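Make up an example, fold above all:
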Amino acid sequence: MNGVLIIDKPAGLTSHDVVNRIRRILNQRSVGHLGTLDPLATGLLPLVAGSMTRLAQFYTQSEKTYEGVIRFGFATDTYDADGEPAGPPQNIKVSLEEVRGLTGDFMGKIEQMPPPFSAKKIHGVPAYKLARKHKEVALKPVQVEIKEFEILGYAEGDADAEGKSRVRFRARVGSGTYMRSVAHDMGKKLGCGAHLESLRRTQLAEFNLADARTLEQVQCAADEDQVEEVFTHPRKLLPQMPGVTADEESAARIRAGRTVNLPELSRSKQVKVYYGQRELIAIVTRVAGTLFHPKIVFASEPRAQLATAHPAR
Protein backbone atom coordinates (compact mmCIF):
# COMPACT_ATOMS: atom_id res chain seq x y z
CA MET A 1 0.00 0.00 0.00
CA ASN A 2 1.49 3.31 -1.13
CA GLY A 3 0.46 6.70 0.20
CA VAL A 4 0.81 9.61 2.63
CA LEU A 5 -1.03 9.45 5.93
CA ILE A 6 -1.32 12.45 8.26
CA ILE A 7 -1.54 11.49 11.94
CA ASP A 8 -2.55 13.68 14.88
CA LYS A 9 0.04 12.34 17.33
CA PRO A 10 -1.02 12.09 20.97
CA ALA A 11 1.29 13.05 23.84
CA GLY A 12 3.37 10.31 25.39
CA LEU A 13 4.23 8.43 22.20
CA THR A 14 7.46 8.77 20.27
CA SER A 15 7.25 9.25 16.52
CA HIS A 16 8.69 5.76 16.14
CA ASP A 17 5.88 4.40 18.35
CA VAL A 18 3.37 5.88 15.91
CA VAL A 19 5.23 4.43 12.91
CA ASN A 20 5.15 0.98 14.53
CA ARG A 21 1.41 1.28 15.23
CA ILE A 22 0.73 2.15 11.58
CA ARG A 23 2.96 -0.69 10.38
CA ARG A 24 0.81 -3.12 12.35
CA ILE A 25 -2.45 -1.56 11.17
CA LEU A 26 -1.38 -1.64 7.51
CA ASN A 27 0.45 -4.95 7.92
CA GLN A 28 3.34 -3.30 6.11
CA ARG A 29 6.99 -2.78 7.06
CA SER A 30 7.76 0.11 4.75
CA VAL A 31 6.45 3.10 6.74
CA GLY A 32 8.39 6.22 7.71
CA HIS A 33 7.78 9.79 8.88
CA LEU A 34 8.60 13.24 7.53
CA GLY A 35 9.75 14.86 10.78
CA THR A 36 10.07 13.70 14.37
CA LEU A 37 7.96 15.02 17.23
CA ASP A 38 9.16 14.69 20.82
CA PRO A 39 7.05 12.43 23.09
CA LEU A 40 5.72 15.53 24.89
CA ALA A 41 4.52 17.09 21.64
CA THR A 42 1.22 16.48 19.88
CA GLY A 43 -0.14 17.25 16.45
CA LEU A 44 0.84 16.86 12.85
CA LEU A 45 2.98 13.83 12.00
CA PRO A 46 3.03 13.00 8.26
CA LEU A 47 3.76 9.36 7.49
CA VAL A 48 4.75 7.83 4.16
CA ALA A 49 4.04 4.22 3.24
CA GLY A 50 5.28 1.88 0.55
CA SER A 51 7.02 3.48 -2.40
CA MET A 52 5.90 6.92 -1.16
CA THR A 53 8.75 6.77 1.38
CA ARG A 54 10.80 8.12 -1.55
CA LEU A 55 9.05 11.45 -1.09
CA ALA A 56 10.99 12.09 2.14
CA GLN A 57 13.83 13.80 0.26
CA PHE A 58 11.46 16.64 -0.73
CA TYR A 59 10.53 17.44 2.88
CA THR A 60 13.88 17.60 4.69
CA GLN A 61 13.83 21.43 4.73
CA SER A 62 10.11 21.93 5.27
CA GLU A 63 8.88 24.86 7.33
CA LYS A 64 6.74 24.05 10.36
CA THR A 65 4.20 25.87 12.55
CA TYR A 66 3.78 25.26 16.26
CA GLU A 67 1.58 26.40 19.11
CA GLY A 68 2.51 25.82 22.72
CA VAL A 69 3.07 27.02 26.26
CA ILE A 70 6.29 28.28 27.88
CA ARG A 71 6.51 28.14 31.66
CA PHE A 72 8.81 30.56 33.44
CA GLY A 73 10.21 30.00 36.93
CA PHE A 74 12.56 27.05 36.45
CA ALA A 75 14.56 25.32 33.72
CA THR A 76 14.81 21.57 33.14
CA ASP A 77 17.60 19.35 31.84
CA THR A 78 15.61 18.45 28.71
CA TYR A 79 14.34 22.03 28.24
CA ASP A 80 10.75 20.74 28.43
CA ALA A 81 8.25 19.46 31.01
CA ASP A 82 9.48 15.86 30.69
CA GLY A 83 12.83 16.76 32.24
CA GLU A 84 14.18 17.12 35.75
CA PRO A 85 14.02 20.65 37.22
CA ALA A 86 17.37 22.44 37.31
CA GLY A 87 16.36 24.11 40.57
CA PRO A 88 13.38 24.84 42.83
CA PRO A 89 10.47 26.60 41.07
CA GLN A 90 10.24 30.36 41.61
CA ASN A 91 6.89 31.99 42.29
CA ILE A 92 7.07 34.69 39.65
CA LYS A 93 4.76 36.83 37.58
CA VAL A 94 6.01 37.55 34.08
CA SER A 95 4.76 40.50 32.09
CA LEU A 96 3.37 39.84 28.63
CA GLU A 97 5.03 43.04 27.44
CA GLU A 98 8.38 41.89 28.80
CA VAL A 99 8.10 38.49 27.17
CA ARG A 100 6.89 39.97 23.89
CA GLY A 101 9.87 42.30 23.98
CA LEU A 102 12.16 39.26 23.91
CA THR A 103 10.69 37.71 20.77
CA GLY A 104 12.68 40.04 18.53
CA ASP A 105 15.90 38.42 19.79
CA PHE A 106 14.73 35.12 18.30
CA MET A 107 13.43 36.32 14.94
CA GLY A 108 15.13 35.68 11.61
CA LYS A 109 18.28 33.60 11.19
CA ILE A 110 19.87 33.01 14.58
CA GLU A 111 22.52 30.81 16.19
CA GLN A 112 20.80 28.27 18.44
CA MET A 113 22.27 25.76 20.87
CA PRO A 114 20.43 22.41 20.58
CA PRO A 115 19.23 20.81 23.82
CA PRO A 116 21.57 18.21 25.37
CA PHE A 117 18.67 15.74 25.16
CA SER A 118 18.39 15.82 21.36
CA ALA A 119 19.12 13.68 18.34
CA LYS A 120 22.13 15.79 17.36
CA LYS A 121 25.13 13.48 17.01
CA ILE A 122 28.50 13.85 18.73
CA HIS A 123 31.12 11.63 17.10
CA GLY A 124 28.29 9.52 15.72
CA VAL A 125 26.44 9.16 19.04
CA PRO A 126 23.07 10.91 19.60
CA ALA A 127 23.41 13.58 22.27
CA TYR A 128 20.50 12.24 24.30
CA LYS A 129 22.29 8.90 24.81
CA LEU A 130 25.26 10.72 26.33
CA ALA A 131 23.03 12.97 28.42
CA ARG A 132 21.16 9.98 29.88
CA LYS A 133 24.49 8.57 31.06
CA HIS A 134 25.43 11.98 32.52
CA LYS A 135 28.34 12.26 30.11
CA GLU A 136 29.58 15.52 28.62
CA VAL A 137 27.42 16.75 25.74
CA ALA A 138 29.63 19.06 23.67
CA LEU A 139 27.18 20.49 21.16
CA LYS A 140 27.81 23.46 18.91
CA PRO A 141 25.37 26.22 17.97
CA VAL A 142 23.65 25.82 14.61
CA GLN A 143 21.95 28.40 12.42
CA VAL A 144 18.16 28.16 12.37
CA GLU A 145 15.42 30.46 11.16
CA ILE A 146 12.35 31.64 13.03
CA LYS A 147 10.01 33.36 10.60
CA GLU A 148 7.17 34.22 12.99
CA PHE A 149 7.06 34.22 16.79
CA GLU A 150 4.05 35.61 18.59
CA ILE A 151 3.15 35.59 22.29
CA LEU A 152 -0.62 35.11 22.31
CA GLY A 153 -1.33 35.70 26.01
CA TYR A 154 -1.28 33.94 29.35
CA ALA A 155 -1.98 30.21 29.33
CA GLU A 156 -5.47 29.07 30.22
CA GLY A 157 -5.79 28.26 33.91
CA ASP A 158 -2.88 30.45 35.03
CA ALA A 159 -3.40 32.14 38.40
CA ASP A 160 -5.30 35.44 38.30
CA ALA A 161 -3.65 37.24 41.20
CA GLU A 162 -0.04 36.09 41.22
CA GLY A 163 2.18 33.48 39.70
CA LYS A 164 1.29 34.26 36.07
CA SER A 165 4.24 32.28 34.78
CA ARG A 166 2.87 30.53 31.68
CA VAL A 167 2.41 32.10 28.24
CA ARG A 168 0.97 30.78 24.99
CA PHE A 169 2.83 31.25 21.71
CA ARG A 170 2.63 30.56 17.99
CA ALA A 171 5.77 30.14 15.87
CA ARG A 172 6.57 29.44 12.24
CA VAL A 173 10.09 28.09 11.87
CA GLY A 174 12.53 26.58 9.42
CA SER A 175 13.86 23.04 9.60
CA GLY A 176 16.06 22.14 12.57
CA THR A 177 14.64 24.71 15.00
CA TYR A 178 14.15 23.59 18.60
CA MET A 179 11.32 25.42 20.37
CA ARG A 180 12.63 23.81 23.57
CA SER A 181 15.82 25.83 23.16
CA VAL A 182 13.82 29.00 22.53
CA ALA A 183 11.94 28.52 25.81
CA HIS A 184 15.17 27.74 27.70
CA ASP A 185 16.98 30.77 26.29
CA MET A 186 14.08 33.09 27.08
CA GLY A 187 14.26 31.96 30.69
CA LYS A 188 17.98 32.71 30.78
CA LYS A 189 17.39 36.20 29.42
CA LEU A 190 14.80 36.89 32.13
CA GLY A 191 17.01 35.36 34.80
CA CYS A 192 14.29 33.08 36.14
CA GLY A 193 14.64 29.92 34.07
CA ALA A 194 11.99 28.53 31.71
CA HIS A 195 11.01 25.41 29.85
CA LEU A 196 8.58 24.26 27.18
CA GLU A 197 5.46 23.01 28.94
CA SER A 198 3.52 21.87 25.87
CA LEU A 199 3.89 21.87 22.10
CA ARG A 200 1.51 21.14 19.24
CA ARG A 201 2.56 21.09 15.59
CA THR A 202 -0.21 22.52 13.43
CA GLN A 203 1.45 22.57 10.00
CA LEU A 204 4.33 21.01 8.08
CA ALA A 205 4.86 22.00 4.45
CA GLU A 206 1.46 21.67 2.71
CA PHE A 207 -0.03 19.52 5.48
CA ASN A 208 -2.17 20.90 8.32
CA LEU A 209 -4.33 19.51 11.10
CA ALA A 210 -7.41 19.51 8.86
CA ASP A 211 -5.72 16.61 7.03
CA ALA A 212 -4.93 14.66 10.21
CA ARG A 213 -6.45 11.45 11.55
CA THR A 214 -6.10 9.88 14.97
CA LEU A 215 -4.61 6.42 15.36
CA GLU A 216 -8.04 5.22 16.39
CA GLN A 217 -9.60 6.56 13.19
CA VAL A 218 -7.00 4.78 11.06
CA GLN A 219 -7.57 1.54 12.96
CA CYS A 220 -11.32 1.87 12.47
CA ALA A 221 -10.88 2.48 8.73
CA ALA A 222 -8.64 -0.59 8.49
CA ASP A 223 -11.17 -2.71 10.36
CA GLU A 224 -13.81 -1.67 7.80
CA ASP A 225 -11.42 -2.30 4.87
CA GLN A 226 -11.50 1.42 3.98
CA VAL A 227 -7.97 2.40 4.96
CA GLU A 228 -7.21 3.95 1.56
CA GLU A 229 -9.88 6.57 2.32
CA VAL A 230 -7.73 8.07 5.09
CA PHE A 231 -4.68 8.59 2.86
CA THR A 232 -3.98 12.08 1.53
CA HIS A 233 -5.08 12.51 -2.07
CA PRO A 234 -1.93 12.34 -4.26
CA ARG A 235 -2.98 15.49 -6.14
CA LYS A 236 -2.42 17.49 -2.91
CA LEU A 237 1.24 16.49 -2.59
CA LEU A 238 4.08 18.91 -3.39
CA PRO A 239 1.77 21.73 -4.60
CA GLN A 240 4.76 23.89 -5.56
CA MET A 241 5.64 21.37 -8.28
CA PRO A 242 3.59 21.30 -11.51
CA GLY A 243 1.81 18.09 -12.40
CA VAL A 244 0.64 16.39 -15.57
CA THR A 245 -1.57 13.41 -16.33
CA ALA A 246 0.15 10.92 -18.63
CA ASP A 247 -1.55 8.84 -21.26
CA GLU A 248 -1.06 5.09 -21.31
CA GLU A 249 1.92 5.17 -23.68
CA SER A 250 3.79 7.88 -21.74
CA ALA A 251 3.02 6.22 -18.44
CA ALA A 252 4.49 2.94 -19.71
CA ARG A 253 7.69 4.71 -20.82
CA ILE A 254 8.04 6.42 -17.45
CA ARG A 255 7.46 3.21 -15.49
CA ALA A 256 10.23 1.63 -17.58
CA GLY A 257 12.59 4.48 -16.63
CA ARG A 258 12.67 5.97 -20.13
CA THR A 259 12.54 9.60 -21.20
CA VAL A 260 9.22 11.12 -22.20
CA ASN A 261 8.16 14.19 -24.15
CA LEU A 262 6.10 16.73 -22.14
CA PRO A 263 5.85 19.82 -24.39
CA GLU A 264 3.27 21.61 -22.23
CA LEU A 265 5.76 21.73 -19.32
CA SER A 266 8.92 22.66 -21.18
CA ARG A 267 9.84 25.40 -18.66
CA SER A 268 9.60 23.24 -15.55
CA LYS A 269 12.63 21.55 -14.03
CA GLN A 270 10.72 18.86 -12.13
CA VAL A 271 7.21 17.59 -12.75
CA LYS A 272 4.83 15.22 -10.96
CA VAL A 273 3.35 12.66 -13.34
CA TYR A 274 -0.03 11.05 -12.63
CA TYR A 275 -1.85 8.21 -14.29
CA GLY A 276 -5.56 8.70 -13.82
CA GLN A 277 -6.77 10.86 -10.96
CA ARG A 278 -5.23 9.12 -7.95
CA GLU A 279 -1.98 7.42 -9.00
CA LEU A 280 1.25 9.40 -8.70
CA ILE A 281 3.60 7.34 -10.83
CA ALA A 282 6.77 9.43 -10.95
CA ILE A 283 8.64 12.67 -10.53
CA VAL A 284 10.54 13.50 -13.69
CA THR A 285 13.37 15.96 -14.34
CA ARG A 286 13.84 17.98 -17.52
CA VAL A 287 16.83 16.80 -19.54
CA ALA A 288 16.65 19.26 -22.44
CA GLY A 289 13.90 21.04 -24.25
CA THR A 290 10.68 19.12 -23.71
CA LEU A 291 12.35 15.83 -22.76
CA PHE A 292 12.01 14.61 -19.17
CA HIS A 293 13.68 11.66 -17.48
CA PRO A 294 12.25 9.85 -14.41
CA LYS A 295 14.01 10.88 -11.20
CA ILE A 296 11.77 8.77 -8.97
CA VAL A 297 9.40 6.05 -10.16
CA PHE A 298 6.85 5.00 -7.59
CA ALA A 299 6.55 1.24 -7.88
CA SER A 300 3.19 -0.48 -7.82
CA GLU A 301 4.52 -2.70 -5.03
CA PRO A 302 6.20 -1.21 -1.91
CA ARG A 303 9.93 -1.66 -2.24
CA ALA A 304 11.29 1.55 -0.72
CA GLN A 305 13.60 1.84 2.20
CA LEU A 306 12.28 3.22 5.48
CA ALA A 307 12.17 7.02 5.27
CA THR A 308 13.99 9.16 7.82
CA ALA A 309 13.88 12.86 8.25
CA HIS A 310 15.31 15.68 10.36
CA PRO A 311 13.90 15.87 13.90
CA ALA A 312 11.27 18.44 14.46
CA ARG A 313 11.12 20.12 17.77
Notes: The two ends are 29 Å apart (CA to CA). The first helix runs from residue 15 to 26. The longest strand covers residues 142-154.
